[in-house]
Each structure stands twice: as C-alpha cells, then as structure tokens.
Amino acid sequence: MASVKPRVKVPKSASAGEVITIKTLISHPMESGQRKDSDGNPIPRQIINKFTCEFNGQVVFSCDIEPAVSANPYLEFTAKVNEAGTFKFTWVDDDGSVYTEEKEIALN
Amino acid sequence: VAGMRTSPALATAEDAMAKVKEFAGGAEPATGTITLNAPEIAENGNTVPVSVSVESPMTEDDYVESVAIFADGNPSPDVITFNFTPMSGEASATTRMRLAKTQNVIAVAKTSTGQVFMDKKEVKVTIGGCGG
C-alpha cells in the first residue's frame, strides 16, 4: 500500500541509564474484516499485526496487534538507554509487507 | 459511512474471561500493581485511548514479560499484547482501540517470576466503533 507511512518520535539524546519515551504512528486503514462494502460483500481483513522496536540489534519492545486497534495504529512505550546507538522499528502487514524506520540516539 | 457492518456476533464477558484465563496460564490474577487507564466515556468508539502501566523493577531477574488487553463487547475480545524486556525500562504502553459499544476493557500482566495481575475499566461508548 503506497499510503503507508511510519512516523516515530525519539529524543535525540539521553543520559546513560535514562528511560526515554518513544511514540510511533503508522498511517494504515486497519481494515478489520468485520465490514461490508456497499454491495454487501465482506471487505477482507488487512491490518498491521506485529510491531517491533530493537536497539542495536536487541529487542526492546514488541506487540501483537489485533483488528480492535484503531486505524493509523499509535504506540507509545519506553526504552532504557545505556549507550548511543540506533533504534529500528518494524511494522508487519497482513499482506506480508514490512515497513521500517530507524532513529539514532546519542549519549549526553 | 460506506460499508457499515451488519451486527456481527459480539464477544461476551465469558469469552473475555476465557481469554484472560488462557493468557494467565493457570495463575489466579491479583489486583493492584497494574493500572489500566481508559476514558470513562468515549464519544467516538473508533479511537479510544488506552494505556497500561505495571510496577516492576524491570531487571533480568524480575520483569513484566507481557500485558494483554481484552474487550468484552467487541466482535473478538483480543485487542493487543505488549511484550516487554528489561531494556524497556518500564512496563508501560499506550495505544488507541476500537470499542463497538459500552463494555469492559481488561488488562492482564504476566511477570518473568510467574505473577499475574489484572485491572478492568468500564468504558461508556456514545458512538460505536464501526467494525471494531
């Protein structure tokens, strides 16, 4: 889907050991599979079903997502930063598409 | 709105509690330690903010492994499962969910030491989430 666009907010820097807040949003209709089109035919389910946040290759946080999560799924969570490095964010679509985004963080 | 749904069967409190039991894996969920935050009244069931936080040291020896959120009046009780690691720093997360009608939202946490905690909030929904 061409319209899918991930957005992520990560602080540019943190103190060693600091717990930071990360906010992510991805534009996606999250078609629940419960709706019908104007002809009464069911609209097939297509959602983002998995999200993962890694830091320097290690999983920090992930979630398994069901159709009850709203369109344009928003996620806010925390990460403990012990070193400078790169956060990698991955969203997995029902259709097999994978969307990724990366953000660097420095130590104060 | 195009494609309004034609009343699918909704989950019941029993369905949701069965999911809670399955997630808890035999442990009896305790109250406290976990806090679920959701609005008392949601004007728009399409996007209801929901957040959970669990008190935990979040060390290698003792951390919250996962928190599942269920809703007992949606077409399916499953909403989301957050999986934490000690690198999460805290066991807290926020998302936005669909609620088809007024119902209970339930959060269940499982720790690495085998403890299970539960919290529950009723959310009154003015306009139901289409196809929640």
From TrEMBL, chain A:
Residues 9-103 form the Sulphur oxidation protein SoxZ domain. InterPro entries: Ig-like_fold, Ig_E-set, SoxZ, SoxZ_dom. It comes from the Bacteria. Pfam families: SoxZ. Transmembrane segments: none annotated. NCBIfam families: SoxZ_true. This is Thiosulfate oxidation carrier complex protein SoxZ. The gene is soxZ.
